[in-house]
Design goal:
The chain has 483 residues and is of the alpha+beta class. The chain has 19 helices and 12 strands. It has helices spanning 21-26, 28-35, 57-66, 75-85, 94-104, 110-113, 117-130, 139-156, 160-181, 184-198, 205-218, 229-252, 260-266, 281-312, 314-325, 341-353, 385-389, 408-411, 432-449; strands at residues 41-46, 49-54, 71-73, 136-138, 360-364, 368-370, 373-375, 380-383, 450-453, 462-465, 467-470, 475-480. A 5-stranded mixed sheet has the order 1-2-8-5-3. The radius of gyration is 23 Å and the shape is globular. The relative contact order is 0.18.
Length: 483
């Protein structure tokens, strides 16, 4: 059967002379959900450029798994995160990405991650020690501080005061990334970059050097906002200073340590022809920055949503409380997933309702057929976990909070790409098991020793800030429990 053309894909309504940029800024989540009603594929316009959205798990699976070799990450991702993540796993491509993934994957095996559970428990108990009975807190802020502490201690062996400084720098940089993500400047730069790339097959030989130079310039995040430049540069310098100091300290000190930074420095490539090769300091720094961002933001936001959802669903809260109370006074201190089965399902359901990443962007490296449609080379395809997670045909009554969706017997018949908080395929988030281990442990540790009073009638809307955060945080009153 001959594949259909791009023109056969329905175009979303609600556009104006700029395309769909306006509606995406005003009602991003509502628009993504409405896209899902248009069929397996839908098109969205930015200026004169059409972008394709894969709306169903089967089509998302094609993009992320079965045809993954036909795609690269979109230029926009690299432009947004280059200053923050360099050539880390999230932004790199090709052989460099394959080598880094090969080096790092063993460090994130579940058997390795289990050694970090004590630190996850320790950071949660550190927060409990700070609180006093009756304190008014923002659970988003405090969960962020806990998650940063977990990343700082488990991954990099950072002191607590360092974690706060690194966290402030990351918040600044993530805010900058968020402000640029819907910027017309970014769209314009991407369009210029793609125009220059297309010239590669047409310019005369003498002009190729100039064309290549222009392309390399456009591949860098050159459109840094002028008024925020000093603030962004300070935050970037803070990260570089802390990571650089840690790396130099590890290089100079031969005493073995168990944190991930040391393991990154010691990781050796086992591939033929590369056997024994390790990462450079710059590569370790890029991966460290990437892991610090990914390692705290997703877990912290999901935890905040868990507390909000449990406040609105007392029966679910009672079941989580029962699992927490089955532990000793300090809560879970080792990996025992069978004892946190329901708590884990709550965490996974929070990730379904509020997936951290709204869009996974890919660009076709060659013509490729997706969902029965032939996409041309350089076509941009988006998979929106948010759109997929609210498909009624996949998730009955998708707006309802139902942790038992993740019971093994109910997951059996569901498509693997129906739940995408960490992506899927070869580029699935390398820290997915870390997050799924940390979230339930922290949740149970906190609930073992504290009750959080949250207004069950208060509706908290999601807003996008690097991840899908609760707007205005999750205000709560702490009531410390006595055994």
């Amino acid at each position: 059967m001959t594949a259909a053309s791009l023109e056969s894909i329905p175009v979303a309504p609600e556009d104006d002379f700029l395309g769909h940029a306006t509606i995406l800024r005003k009602d991003r989540l509502g628009f993504l959900r409405r896209l899902g009603t248009l069929g397996p594929l839908a098109r969205v316009r930015f200026l004169n450029r059409y972008l394709t959205f894969a709306n169903l798990p089967e089509v998302a699976h094609q993009v992320l798994v079965t045809e993954a070799q036909s795609f690269e990450k979109s230029p926009g991702i690299r432009l947004l995160l280059r200053d923050l993540a360099g050539e880390g796993l999230f932004t790199s491509e090709g052989e460099h990405w394959k080598r880094q993934r090969r080096l790092m994957s063993p460090l994130f095996h579940p058997s390795q991650l289990a050694t970090y559970t004590q630190s996850m428990n320790d950071e949660a108990r550190r927060a409990l020690d700070r609180w006093r009975d009756g304190d008014r807190i923002d659970l988003l802020r405090d969960c962020t501080r806990i998650a940063m502490g977990v990343v700082g201690t488990t991954l990099f062996g950072a002191a607590f005061n360092e974690v706060d400084e690194i966290g402030d720098a990351l918040t600044t940089l993530l805010g900058w990334v968020n402000s640029l993500s819907a910027s017309q400047y970014l769209t314009t730069q991407i369009l210029l970059l793609e125009a220059v790339e297309r010239l590669a097959d047409h310019v005369p030989g003498p002009l190729e050097k100039l064309r290549s130079k222009v392309q390399s310039i456009l591949e860098e995040p050159v459109l840094l906002p002028g008024r925020r430049r000093p603030e962004i540069l300070r935050a970037t310098h803070t990260l570089e200073r802390h990571m650089g100091e840690k790396i130099r300290e590890r290089r100079a000190n031969q005493v073995p340590r168990k944190d991930l930074l040391t393991r990154l420095l010691l990781a050796r490539d086992g591939e033929p022809g590369r056997s024994g090769q390790t990462m450079t300091d710059e590569q370790v720094r890029d991966e460290a920055n990437t892991l610090f961002v990914a390692g705290h933001e997703t877990t912290a936001t999901a935890l905040a949503w868990c507390f909000y959802l449990l406040a609105r669903h007392p029966e679910a809260r009672a079941r989580v409380q029962a699992e927490a109370d089955a532990f000793g006074a300090n809560g879970p201190v080792q990996a025992e997933p069978q004892k946190l089965a329901y708590t884990t399902r709550v965490f996974k359901e929070a990730l379904r309702l509020y997936p951290p990443l709204l869009l996974l962007a890919r660009r076709a490296l060659k013509p490729v057929e997706i969902g029965g449609v032939l996409l041309p080379k350089r076509a941009i395809v988006f998979v929106s976990p948010y759109t997929v997670h609210f498909q009624p045909s996949v998730w009955p009554n998708p707006d309802a909070f139902d942790p038992d969706r993740f019971l093994p017997e109910r997951e059996t018949g569901r498509h693997k790409a129906a739940w995408l908080p960490f992506g899927e395929g070869p580029r699935v988030c390398i820290g997915n098991y870390f997050a799924l281990l940390e979230g339930p442990i922290v949740l149970a540790t906190l609930m073992r020793r504290a009750r959080f009073e949250i207004d069950p009638h208060r509706v908290i809307e999601p807003e996008f800030f690097a991840t899908l955060r609760p707007r205005g945080g999750v205000p709560a009153t702490v009531h410390l429990r006595k055994d």
